[in-house]
Amino acid sequence: MTTTTDDTQHDSHADDHHEHHIPYGIKRWLYTTNHKDIGTLYLWFAFIMFLTGGAMAMVIRAELFQPGLQIVEPHFFNQMTTVHGLIMVFGAVMPAFTGLANWLIPMMIGAPDMALPRMNNWSFWILPFAFLILLSSLFLEGGGPAFGWTFYAPLSTTYSADSTALFVFAVHIMGASSIMGAINVIVTIFNMRAPGMTWMKMPLFVWTWLITAFLLIAVMPVLAGAVTMVLTDKFFGTSFFDAAGGGDPVMFQHIFWFFGHPEVYIMILPAFGIISQIIPTFARKPLFGYASMVYATASIALLSFIVWAHHMFTTGMPVAAELFFMFATMLISVPTGVKVFNWVATMWRGSMTFEVPMLFAIAFIVLFTIGGLSGLMLAIVPVDFQYHDTYFVVAHFHYVLVTGAIFSIMAAVYYWLPKWTGKMFHIGLAKWHFWCSLVSVNVLFFPMHFVGLAGMPRRIPDYALQFADFNKWISIGGFAFGLSQLIFLVLLVKACKKQGDPVSAQVWEGAEGLEWEIPSPAPYHTFETPPVVK
Amino acid sequence: MLSALMTAPVFAESKDQIEQYQLNMTKGATDISAGVYDMHMLMFVICVLIGAGVFIAMFISMYFHRKSRGAKPANFHENVKVEIAWTVIPFVILIFMAVPAMNLLIDMEDASEPDVSILVTGSQWKWHYKYMDNDVEYFSKLATQADQISGKLPKGKNYLLEVDRPLVIPTGQKVRFLITSDDVIHSWWVPDFGFKQDANPGFINDAWTKVNDPGVYRGQCAELCGKDHGFMPIVVIAKEPAEYAEWISEQEAVQQQAKAEEQRLLAMNMTMEEAMDQGENVYNANCAACHMPNGEGLPGVFPALKGSQIAVADQPKHIDILINGVTGSAMQSYAKQLTMSEIAAVVTYERNAWGNDTGDLVQAKDINSAMNGQ
């Protein structure tokens, strides 16, 4: 994948011309339609939400540091677990991936910008309002949402506080934002690829995001439907989820998880793409099995629509349904396994170096695999009856979401940050960030497997004494992981102030792809004349 | 916070008897739970082997194929045979997991031909057990004192895992649980029995167990069910069938006697002092979780009783709420949970405590007539 160099030359002239017209001040960010600016906005927003949701996790871990109720009341504890989940899923992980898509997809496929730049601005700028609404509900009488991020009816309908209306509105806005972002990604990839950038030449990050965008369009409306039914059940006397009126509370779970399971893959497929970009660079060897990676991603996406009820094995489904969802779920481990094997084969007989993005990528593969394997255990219905709704599940999904999705986002930020700023980030701080995060995240989440197996349920503010010692360690790990992220904050502030050594266009020795052929920092406008991909 | 720090040494002392650092799932008390444990271990071993294989390959590569060791990159990037192999082999491994899992599941889901059937009903935040073959039913609630939770008293050995009235079942017999809920979704889980089953309002799920040895088995509600989800334990005592038979007939007698006693009390009048004393106890055990010990509730979620129009003025409405609950809210019916004299006492208490000085004294016969629609 190379471009003709005279195109690049031409570009940098055009860019010089445009540099003078970069708007400045608050208006630059409010009115921007530039994919790079919007990408930056998304990424900073996601990071602020990550710290906010993280602060709530600190409250949770402080309360669980020892048995008894010390710091918060159970009702507030439930609000913390709920809003922590909502913020991390909809405020941190998803916007971070959208930010990366904004920055990278046009540069990777040789497009000058996203296809729908004004909608791009709009899809970002409604997000802060969604989260302001959600967070403000915590200060209302009766508190914010306290029914878990999964908002199972009737706890979220008949038995919830009136702030549920705000929760519903906030989720609607988040959903609209995601759908607009997804449409933008699809339209951009379909229409704006540079000449010669055929489907099977697209970088895997672009492929995985394309498939993710289709998942988003398919399931975000389902979520919108679910919250709307909650709204009308609570405020307008409908009985979708109330047996007394002919409804069914379990139907809520079917609808929610029909959204929720593809949502899981929405949060991990772009991560697969990122890792597939980073491993070949630092192994100095092409990605093993590019085509099978694409097919594996597509199969995971398709299978994700027929496994939703594995979240509901204890709801009293018929045996036949339990067996179907068990087999379908187990099947997902095949394409996921193919991906992991391909990454290892890419590393095999490479010439590896271990720069910070590679460290995060390797940690991703190991820890995501652990989370994947515990997922396979959870798929087995008879044992899931024991695992379900315990800390074993909490351990599982934090391994795939924190050391999976979030580690991949950090890997991506370290990998492309020098391209964005033109300066190498502070490597010392980055290594501290990596090693502190790696150790503390395992002290935090690994013992959760044990307390879960020993019988500790999720979402409880207080626990029996036999879980005390492990919980103390989990909390210590949690505080350490939280503090480690402040190192990242310092590093990012330094990077945004453009401190550090200048980097070349390629930045990393083994990096390949269109984004590494434009100058560092990436000019405000790139590929105004499309490059030709051979 | 301060009180928690002060009791920390006491807490450390009482904790010594509790086994810490349990790493694995329990084998449990039934053949099914032992089967679940074996299935869990089979999965665990297979997953560890797969994980170990992947990680060893990775770390060999990371050690030997480093640039700093002078490794030159190879250029291979696909191999159809290898890719087919690592698609097919995992598939075969999955079949080896799926078959025993399927057999175990089919055994677990067969709740037919039970010896004993018990209707288990969850409600915020207690369990109700009704023996379908005998005239016995009762509520089972957390027995841990509030002062232990707040740290004012040292925590006991079974902290948060103790109830006022445990469920009693016979050993060696197939006990079927019919599980449902009166309000939100709960989940009935005793780890030693190897299953958990959701309690869905308006629907009945079934599950069963056959406990081999007598003993006390403890569990908890496993589905987030609101504020006191963490304070809704389950305790089951398994007794030899003969002992169980004795227990159940004794309970039948006791419950019949209690009903007779309730009729007798209808004719009696409590003094204000008696009513306030009994009312305060009933209030703290049943009402304080939501309406708070000071009667101020939790604004926006649970209404205050202190100074409320219903508690200071509308007495018929007050009694009606206790008997029938409030549809579309967390307020449940207490007609089944409390005796008529208890309801009378608690209404009296609520109308006179915290400055609600109405002077109203409600008697059991008033409740009886309200219940009979007079």
Automatic annotation (TrEMBL), chain A:
EC top class named in words: translocase
The alphabetized UniProt keywords are:
Cell membrane, Copper, Electron transport, Heme, Iron, Membrane, Metal-binding, Respiratory chain, Translocase, Transmembrane, Transmembrane helix, Transport
Q: Name one GO cellular component term.
A: respiratory chain complex IV
Q: Which Gene3D superfamilies match?
A: Cytochrome c oxidase-like, subunit I domain
Q: Where does it live in the cell? A: Cell membrane; Membrane
Catalytic function, reaction form: 4 Fe(II)-[cytochrome c] + O2 + 8 H(+)(in) = 4 Fe(III)-[cytochrome c] + 2 H2O + 4 H(+)(out)
Per the record, the similarity remark reads: Belongs to the heme-copper respiratory oxidase family.
Protein name, per record? Cytochrome c oxidase subunit 1
Identify the gene encoding this protein.
coxA
